[in-house]
Amino acid sequence: MTSSVWPALAALVVSAVGVLALLLAEKQWAVIAIIIAAGAAMFLARRFDWNERIRRSGAANSRKVFLAAMVLVVGAAFVMREHNFALLMLCTVMLMMVAGLGLTLQFGQAGVVNFAGAAFFGIGAYAAAVFATKTALPHLLVILAGGFFAALIGSVLVLPLLRTRGHYTALITIAFGILFKTFLEVNDALGGPQGLKVPGFVLFGHAFNDPIEIDEETEWSFYLAYAGLSLLLVAAAYAFVRRLERSWIGLAFDAVRIDETAASAFGVNVAAWKIAAFSIGNFLIGVAGAAYAMMTGFVAPTSFTFGDSLILVSIVILGGLGSALGLIPAALVVVVLPEKLQAIQEYRFLLFALLVIVILLVRPGGLLPRALRDYRVGAPR
Amino acid sequence: MTTPLLDARGLVVRFGGVTALDGLDLSVAAGETVGLIGPNGSGKTTFFNALTGFVRLAAGRAQLAGSDITGLEPRRIAAHGIARTFQRLRLLLELSVFDNLMLGQHLVLDHGPWSNLFVRRRFTAEVRRQAEAARALLAAFSPGLPARLFEPARALTMIDRRRVEICRALIRDPALLLLDEPSAGMTPDETAELMTDLLAVKAQRPALTVVIIEHDMAVIERVSDRCVVLDYGRKLAEGPYAAVAADPVVRRAYLGED
Fold it and tell me: Does any domain span residue A339?
């Protein structure tokens, strides 16, 4: 049974237009109207059973839909070419998704809890600051170095993680996150509490921090270049995590998460798979941190608190544990809404906490729950 | 007699002050089906857990096909060719039937990143081959099961879940299959059906060696070549079902007659 690509494509275009409108909306009433429209669209989709058709169409045409999504992001970025702030938010959403992909791999797929997401994000950011200032490493490699260092420093936690379960593991990662922040604050070589400046990204001689001059009158936002970089990173990370999930490796992760006893009875090396998931996840989180630091030009310990780790975890839970697709709406909600709704900005931690509780009660699978594994990428059933 | 497939000698397991296995000797010949019976707490499941490495032996040693498996980790013992089921079902309910069976194939599957992530053509060919094998095995247990290969295990009835769990243990062609009370939670009719399937599979694979824990005496009588009775972690009696069932010592300890 083949399924047409159109339902998924239509849903994608409608969502993209909505997101674009939200990013560009300036008046409060417009923001609220867009949120209400989104709610109405979700209600209608449910009322008329479109969700299942969209899901099937997307699953059967995953490659085309993936490409279409990339084209839409490029289009949206182009529309916003003169709006610095809207583009910054778009980039932040994409980089948070990269970090969320790492976390959902650890947490949602292999079951390794990590409440120090912000610390690994920070390791990537500081690594980028140091490598870009002190070495002549090409900047694409600087970003990979951010990921590499996050994974490397994460290996310090491997032994305690393997010896503990559940709440205790969570406590260890929380302690690590707090230690990391304190370490940064007292370490003068890394700028202490003031932090460090990070040079902007340079690729083949093009400095991303320079505005793009089209002619004498028009100048495009320099964030356009970062949007391209973020899109590249998120597309690569997404394809990577999805392929991993749809492979024997993903099955081993799931087995380790669901039942260690059953897994080891069939020869699964539980410890090795946990280490693999933890390291790959930290790598992705570190890559996101490095790119974010180069985009914002500045790193400081206050950006990597326990609260920021909780934000990352709430993105993962909101989207649906283990669900890569769910990270898209979740990252949008968590990153964009507080910026757009000035009324809630001060209460955002409170609201995220409430949101996570409501999701766990009403829809424990998250906004877009993870589907049953289908090993055949893009192939109809 | 040739060397037995499984040779366990003097197994001792202690939980705090309780001795769960108290110097148990048990050997099983290749191709044999042994029924393991005994009252609750007599050490049957502990024997399985000790063999598969989930509890530590205080003394004794176990050999499988001549190689020592004493004190190895569960995953290493699995690699020696022991597969098992669990008394309380341990299917991965949120995953598909296929995923569950593929957990049974874990040691056979290629986990290399190259084929899993990049050369997807090779990977999908392997998936197709494994799905074929899985369907064939499921069909031996129930004609309706192969069609449900890509449904979540949660959607299956109790008897189908048991079937899938047994298939998961069988799919890698283990040398020794340990079945821990496959009738638990099922009606007598369902149990009889499952045993018919099991006997059919056993008939196709004469080399398969089975140890089965069961409370249901009819099951033991039907499937086992030999019966071993445990009580307080020791072997109380051993022999063909008829002889064991007639043994006055066994009747007193287990069947509850004076």
Answer: no
For residue A224, being part of any structural domain is answered with: yes
Nearest CA to B100 among A324, A263, A110? A263
* SS percent in chain B: helix, strand, coil, step 5: 40, 25, 35
Residue type, position B137, single letter: L
Query: What residues in B contact A375, CB-CB < 8 Å?
Result: 123-124, 127
Distance CA B25, CA B36 (A): 13
Chain A residues whose beta carbon lies within 8 Å of the beta carbon of residue B95: 251, 254, 258, 372-373
pLDDT digits (tens, 9 = 90+) for A132-174: 988 888 889 999 999 999 999 999 998 888 888 878 989 999 9
Q: How many CB atoms lie within 10 A of CB A316?
A: 29
Total number of domains constituting chain A:
1
Report if residue A257 sits inside a domain.
yes
CB neighbour list of residue A57: distance below 8 Å, 6 or more residues apart = A3, A4, A5, A6, A7, A8, A9
ipTM: 0.93
**Residue B213 backbone phi and psi in degrees, to 5:** -90, 130
Could you tell me which chain B residue has the CA closest to the CA of A253?
B103
Mark which residues 193-232 of B lie under 8 Å from A by CB.
none
The candidate with the shortest Cα–Cα distance to B84, out of B209, B195, B194, is B209
Output the average pLDDT for chain B.
Answer: 91
**What are the structure tokens assigned to B119, written together?**
């050369």
Residue A49 domain-assigned? no
Q: What span, in angstroms and rounded, lies between the C-alpha atoms of B80 and B178?
A: 14
Range of the domain at A172: 84-325
Contact A96, A315 (CB under 8 A): yes
**E-state strands within B172-218:** 176-180, 209-213
Would you state the pLDDT for residue A165?
Answer: 81
Q: Give A296-323 pLDDT, tens digit per residue.
A: 989 999 889 898 999 999 999 999 999 9
- Chain A contact probe: residue of B111, B122, B165 with most A CBs at under 10 A: B111
C-alpha A314/C-alpha A334 separation (Å) is 8
Write the CA distances from B217 to B72, B174, B198, B213, integer angstroms. Answer: 33, 26, 16, 10
Q: Do A265 and B78 touch (CB under 8 A)?
A: yes
| Interchain contact B103–A (C-beta under 8 A) | yes
pLDDT tens-digit readout, A30-41:
888 998 999 899
* Rounded Cα gap, residues A260 and A350, in angstroms: 35
